[in-house]
Amino acid sequence: MKETKRAINKEKDLARASCAWTTGETSVPLIISLSENWPPAYFRKIMQTIPLGASSLAGSRLAYGCWRLASNKEDPQAGRRAVQAAYEAGYTLFDNADIYGGGEAEKMMGAALKEISGMRQRVLVLTKCGVRHGGHPTPDTPNRWDFSGEYIINSCEGSLKRLGIETIDIFMLHRPDFLADPAEIAKAFEQLHEAGKVRFFAVSNFRPTLVTALQTACPMPLILHQVEISLAKLDAFTDGTLDQCLSERITPMAWSPLAAGLIGDGAKRLLPAQQSYRPEKFLAELDAIAKARGTSRTVIAFSWLLKHPSKIIPIVGSINPERIREATKAADLELSREEWYRLLNAARGEPLP
């Protein structure tokens, strides 16, 4: 009888096993029910995670980018399906911004967080501020970047409302305001952190010198630096950005890691600076390595970024569930140094001396 009771108690304990999900200063216990259907798809496929900068956070090896969530006007639910596909495929870091879809991308992410049971406890919500489009508040107002303390705080409040959450895990400055005052920014950061509205802060598209100036003024670490990096855009390897990330424990994120689709199935929309990209320089080499590895060129392109010791996190921006899932294969594929340099030389258009 005692043995039977012990066995029953053991089964009860297992049925209420606590799985710790790291979400910052504390771990959120997730009560799970063990069965033949456990673990669900997103647990079986979850990607490896890495520490994010000098913080207590850990995020998936690839991030999911939300800027296209509201892009399909004919099928408004496409964005919702994309978020769920990313979550189920093991992405735990979701990248957003107040300007994506005019705020609609944040609203769609917020709806998913509310509708998908347990999602908020298992993912990190990153959003950005600082880009202001022209025409507001007056018709002749120009496009500008705004890191004034008042605007940072108001932007955060707006994002929290659209996301439907109480705290943003990572709040990022989007584009480098030429009038940025590090002391003013630091004061706004402190106010948001002390109010419990933001846990950690980060930057995007900064010059390394501006990162240094802001970090010197801030009492908290800047944990991420998001810049454009791909085989078509190599600047971060030579302008000091990745070197600084290594020395300052800042995790780099790569936006447009497929060069707006030029490395994939073709670009639907290129930014002005991307018009000059010449992927034909390296696509043959990329395809050759992909064929030898039995995978797609996009997986190899992501793996190429993952190889760097700074732990670059590529941002996957597709709303196609199959492409979202396929990208995760890169986390399990490591290129050799020789393969990596073959692609670098091809991308440069000339061999290293």
Relative helix content: 25-40%
The proportion of strand residues reads 15-25%
Secondary structural class: alpha/beta
| DSSP strand count | 14
Most strands sheet: 8 strands, parallel, barrel
SSE arrangement:
Layout: H1 2-15, E1 18-22, E2 27-31, H2 41-44, E3 49-51, E4 58-60, E5 63-65, H3 78-88, E6 93-95, H4 104-115, H5 119-122, E7 124-129, E8 131-132, E9 144-145, H6 149-163, E10 168-173, H7 182-194, E11 198-204, H8 208-217, E12 222-228, H9 235-238, H10 241-248, E13 251-255, H11 283-293, H12 297-306, E14 313-316, H13 321-327, H14 337-348
Parallel strand pairs: 5-6, 5-14, 6-7, 7-10, 10-11, 11-12, 12-13, 13-14
Antiparallel strand pairs: 1-2, 3-4, 8-9
Helix pairs in contact: 3-4, 3-13, 6-7, 7-8, 11-12, 11-14
Summarize the structure.
This protein has 353 residues and is of the alpha/beta class. Helix content is 38%, strand content 17%.
